């Protein structure tokens, strides 16, 4: 399997264009199941996860065509009819968001059989809230042998859905199912992440009636059918935040473009507090650090607009060489510190107790061989490698390829010494 090698020490100077958001794109792709007309998604990232979901959707009857359109990378998804309502374990296990095909399948064709996703390295991540939402909408849910059987032969019915905790995936899933339900659905305690508003915009372009996404209450008035549409995927706020942290870590000056800095205010505030230069521009942000050492700051992850859990690993990498001690609290996922022991292999001084990591900044990191454990953890190791003395090699980078488009190219264009080592066939389990 491929690895990434980073030779530390180079500053970053240049421009990095931010891609379309992975976590939005994969939900928008699922929306194609709701109509027999083509859905054209532009600003599409080309990632392992989007390819992967494309494969699953193809099995369900969606024609998926990737191309370079008049406005850049696009994917056209067209499901004249649903040819199968079955999403097997093999496909759902590899990418949890595949589970979100369940709601649209039931909404469009009255039934589906979708595998439960199973465990995950960052936490248990159950899907009980997804199932509660579908049941509230009138679907009959049965669980057998690891599969969810959902049926609503006479269609879904609008309902009041109150989530006990904020869940991005369950809110999106409820929205995807309710757009074709008969009557009005109100989702209370909805997630407010920007990907929700993006999904709302796309569904409304398809003829749905959704209001309130981006606030804790979303109202959906069901319609009988949806039509085709063209929709541009929002910029990837996590990719933007990752390169902002990389620039603050390596030093230099990086301009991030095609981005919306307002989506990562919580991170940008922390970068400023740590001493990095942050200058918003019309289509992104400039991050700079010239020589001086950053100061340690504390962070606590929270639902949007709080500090994103998907930026926690990267921020921990940044704090490994800052002056002083930083406390990092993870409140969204119970096991999301797997990067800590790998950062310690590079010389970081970190202790983890429960949901809190204490990072005592060291003068410098030393290159080493490290292993990626999940998507955001893997990029935190690359960020640390940018300043580690000598060479850092990150293995299991299939995690990285799920969510970062052309990472070596983007960092390389700013002067980073990052290269991909092609796999030698050795088994990595
Ligand atoms: C989405 O996951 C993102 N994934 C995650 O990004 C992100 O970390 C997370 O939201 C939080 O922002 C995608 O969009 C594909 P949740 P999701 O449901 O929807 C619990 C990445 O690296 N919960 O908001 O799965 C759950 O266990 C990924 O790109 C239940 O208890 O997250 C967690 O503790 C990683 N029951 C909390 O809610 C449920 O039915 C929030 O999870 C659903 C969730």
From TrEMBL:
| Pathway linked to the protein | Cell wall biogenesis; peptidoglycan biosynthesis
Q: Top enzyme class of this protein?
A: transferase
Localization per record = Cytoplasm
- A Pfam family in this protein? EPSP_synthase
GO terms, biological process? cell division; cell wall organization; peptidoglycan biosynthetic process; regulation of cell shape; UDP-N-acetylgalactosamine biosynthetic process
Could you identify this protein by its name? UDP-N-acetylglucosamine 1-carboxyvinyltransferase
Which residues are noted in the entry as UDP-N-acetyl-alpha-D-glucosamine-binding? 96, 125-129, 310, 332
Give a short account of what the protein does.
Cell wall formation. Adds enolpyruvyl to UDP-N-acetylglucosamine.
Q: Which InterPro entries has this protein been placed in?
A: Enolpyruvate_Tfrase_dom, Enolpyruvate_Tfrase_sf, MurA_subfamily, RNA3'P_cycl/enolpyr_Trfase_a/b, UDP_GlcNAc_COvinyl_MurA
Q: Which family does it belong to?
A: Belongs to the EPSP synthase family. MurA subfamily.
E.C. number:
2.5.1.7
**Which reaction is the catalytic activity of this chain?**
phosphoenolpyruvate + UDP-N-acetyl-alpha-D-glucosamine = UDP-N-acetyl-3-O-(1-carboxyvinyl)-alpha-D-glucosamine + phosphate
Give the annotated active site: 120 (proton donor)
Q: Where is the Enolpyruvate transferase domain?
A: 7-411
Instruction: Give me the gene this protein comes from.
Output: murA
- Which UniProt keyword terms apply here? Cell cycle, Cell division, Cell shape, Cell wall biogenesis/degradation, Cytoplasm, Peptidoglycan synthesis, Pyruvate, Transferase
Q: Where does the signal sequence lie?
A: none
- GO MF, one example: UDP-N-acetylglucosamine 1-carboxyvinyltransferase activity
PANTHER family assigned to the protein according to its UniProt record, in alphabetical order: UDP-N-ACETYLGLUCOSAMINE 1-CARBOXYVINYLTRANSFERASE
Positions carrying 2-(S-cysteinyl)pyruvic acid O-phosphothioketal: 120
Please state the protein's primary subcellular location. cytoplasm
One cellular component (GO) term of this entry: cytoplasm
Tell me where on the tree of life, at the top rank, the source sits. Answer: Bacteria
